[in-house]
Amino acid sequence: IMTTSSLTFQPVLDRIAAEIEKTPERGRPADYIPALAACDPRRFGMAVAEPDGTVYGVGDWRQPFSAQSITKVFTLALDLAREGDALWEHVGREPSGNPFNSLVQLEYENGIPRNPFINAGALVVTDRLQTQTGDAAETLLAFLRAESGNDELTINERVAASESAHGDRNAALGHFMASYGNIGNPVPVLLNQYFRQCSVEASCADLALATGFLARHGIRADGTRLLSSSQSKQVNAIMLTCGTYDAAGDFAYRVGLPGKSGVGGGIIAVVPGHCTLCVWSPGLDERGNSVSGVAALDRFTTLTGLSVF
Ligand code: GLN
């Protein structure tokens, strides 16, 4: 076990990257859209950001990648900041135990999705943020740019178009929930916002920094408050229990941190009060989580002793 002094992060990251490099099993990139299928599963990057904005990294940590479902954390926080607990009348907070794009539970629970991090729940959150702001995806983008300090962070419109062309499942989720009155905007408007949200491109450095408010108990990079410390705790709790879909139990067991994955191969994680992490490697396991990403976070908490347990 090492001390938590920042001086120790770089050697830890270097050691993890060297270990990952030697690992033969790296998973397979998501293949539901061509833009993601083309990624090399051997790529790997990892960044750690301290609450004061100091950031350490290794490998491809400055390479932008498709953030995908990682963005669900930020839209949740942005909507909670605006409408508070009213959101919870429209989406639950229980792990689903089902794949991220599952439809089955909605019929039994009146169109109220289990949690904000499966696709159905994320669609509800984006719908509500759209109503609050008039442009959910641009609100998200502005937030990520401000928190990361990177004005070049963008939405990849080619990926968004590809998401839309292969978006039948998400369209079905949107229409199904709309039939229960749980979607406020026209479904095509919502889907356009959601596909653009998924298509945000950011690096490990960007996303580790943008997650910082969850290590600072709700405080943004500029010192203003986004969430109350209680809300920040709540978002971290939902990440722990729901952030890696039907693998959340195994992720908590191995890593011991609130985390959120995306099918682009990224995972963000939070050590409240200490630091935030983002790791990227495009090869996924069968539940849609980055194989090397989970392995690297597992090694990080083992080597540093930093975890919420
Ligand atoms: N764009 C993907 C989808 O909605 C995001 C899913 C994910 O990252 N798990 O299917």
Automatic annotation (TrEMBL):
Transmembrane segments: none annotated. It comes from the Bacteria. It is an enzyme of class 3 (hydrolase). The keyword Transmembrane does not apply. Its EC number is 3.5.1.2. Pfam families: Glutaminase. It catalyses: L-glutamine + H2O = L-glutamate + NH4(+). GO terms for molecular function: glutaminase activity. Keywords: Acetylation, Hydrolase. Signal peptide: none annotated. Substrate binds at S69, N119, E163, N170, Y194, Y245, V263. Gene3D superfamilies: DD-peptidase/beta-lactamase superfamily. Coiled coil: none annotated. Belongs to the glutaminase family. Homotetramer. PANTHER family: GLUTAMINASE. This is Glutaminase. It comes from Streptomyces durmitorensis.
